[in-house]
Amino acid sequence: MSDETQVPQGTDATLQTTDLPVTIHAQYIRDLSFENPEAPNSMRAGLSMPEMNVNIGMDARALEDDNIKNLYEVALTISATAKRDNETVFIAEIMYGVTVSIADVVPEDQHHPLLLIEIPRFSFPFARQILATLTSQGGYPPLLLNPVDFQALYMDRFKEEIAQAQAAAATTN
Prior knowledge:
The chain is an alpha+beta fold. It contains 3 helices and 6 strands.
């Protein structure tokens, strides 16, 4: 993001990308869960490191508002499961929500990628920090997630729709 305006919580912040103005109205935890099913046995000294499985999902939905056009909620979901010897050590999950509006200058066909690439990219550090704190409060080292390429996730998730749209555009030209 080329320009971010920092404002106190509870007020609107404007996130400006080069050509795509977006207003962030709110950020919040929609759901947060931590399960520690084998505690305290899973925390004994000398145990091997658990295997981590991390899944990331993005979703967006339009919100109705008489005063704000192009209002959406974007939800970033991160689920992390740690297993050792086929036993679950912990499960940490967060659904982090962001309410945004997109300015009229942004073409309608650009709303979907903007919502599912740029907004998750913006909100990921916040959700990541919450998960790190959650796992450390659960008795484990902080879960430090690597940066995520949300554009690659988007392209992979919607590759069929993108190919269909490209084929349709090629036949009309």
